Every structure is written in structure tokens, then in C-alpha cells.
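task queued by scheduler; priority normal; single chain, no ligands, no partner chains; default sampling; output format set to C-alpha cells
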Amino acid sequence: MKRPVLVVAVAALALFGGTAAFRLSTASGDGAAPLNARVGPDYIISFTMPDGSPITTLAPGTYTINAVDTEVEHNFHIFGPGVDLSTGANSEEEDVWTATFQNNALYTFRCDIHPTVLNGSVTVGSPVIAPVVAAPAAKSAVSAKGTGNGSSALTVAGTLSASVSATGALKLSLNGAAVKSLPVGFYKVNVTDASKTDNFVLRDKSAGYSQTLTATTFVGKKSASLEIAAGAWDYFSNGHPATHTSFVAK
């Protein structure tokens, strides 16, 4: 069986220099552009904005949802107060749903066949974000500098440059050189995406986790901050998932 990969709606955390930055995608209902519910290819499930960014919180209201199920071994099921919608469990399917999300409620989406590995949730109303403590940084890549007041600040191991050409070619480099291996640590990633049909996905193959840095329809520049843990990594486009480039972090 292929290693499960989960892309869910989460708040992205970057913790550098003693500050925490949260990225929160919020949608508004009643006439807004359709949301996207998708399961597949492989072990990927997502609930996203029209531009492909993950949804973590919704304003209450009525929404149109474009549902796409590309795998016969999965389905997409979203449920909560007043909502219970799903694709079939044994077929590929595309559908358009209308759902009314109630205020101060939690909604869950999942694959009913693999509910423990393919799942996520959306809060309707104002979310409460609890403080998050960063994982200890690897000494080989990230240094802790004393601030003189008993605290420490994490420093970035480096800045990666990621690009998607107009023809869908992907590159990942550090200081101008193609990445074949990286020291573990926290990195800033600057992404330039010139394709309307391809995107940039960075995957920790050892942990079975993917970070979608741009949406397939996005054209422009974005930045993200993430931790590169020890193990096997690769990067690819959802437009051509079979074509990927590998590197190792150690």
C-alpha cells in the first residue's frame, strides 16, 4: 500500500526570532465563489478556497461546494450540524453541493474508508488559536541564541528558492545550487510559480506529509516557513504527480 499523504486545512506556523506567524484562510458564504472538496489522487484529501488555499475557518452561511473524488478506494464525507454530504465509496465522482454552515459549530471532513489518516475539520465562526511551542531545532542547522533574559530565539538555517516554470518544470535550490541534500532545520521558502496548471508540493516521504506551497491555478510569488526534518524528501506538481525530484535531509 502506498504511504498515506494528508493535505488538510491547517493554520501554518512559522516560529522564528521568538515570534509566531499564523496563516488563516477564511471564507464568507451567501454568494461566495464555490469551495473545493477533493479526495485523491492517492492518499490526499483537501477542503480548499477557490484559489486552492486550505480552509481553516468559515463564516456562517450557505456555500456551493465543488466535490471531486478521483479514487475508487476513497470518498469525501463532510458532516456537522445541518450538513451531511458525501461522494460514493466505490466510484470516481464529481458533484456540486449546497451546504449551510451554522455559527459556532465544528464540521469534519474525512474518507470513510480511511478515517484515521484522511481527515480534517473546519470551524465556523471566530477560531481560537492556542499557543504553539516549536519543536526543538537540530543543532547542526539551527542555533539558539541567548537574548539575555532567560529566553532563546530560533534562527533560520537558510532560504530555499522554489520555482515552477510556465511549462511546469520544477526547481528547488539553496544559494543558487540545486538541492540534493539539506541539513535538517527551519527554512524559509520563496516560491515563484509561472504555471496556470502546475504547482509546487514539498513532501516529507519519511513522515508521509505534504506541504502544498502553491495552488495549481496560482501564478505569482509566495513565501512559507517550514521545518525540514531528517529523512527522504521530494517535490512535485499535482499536475504531474508521477514526476518528482528527491533529496535527503540529514
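post-processing summary
- Residues 39 and 104 are 26 Å apart (CA to CA).
- Confidence is low (pLDDT under 50) at residues 1-26, 127-154.
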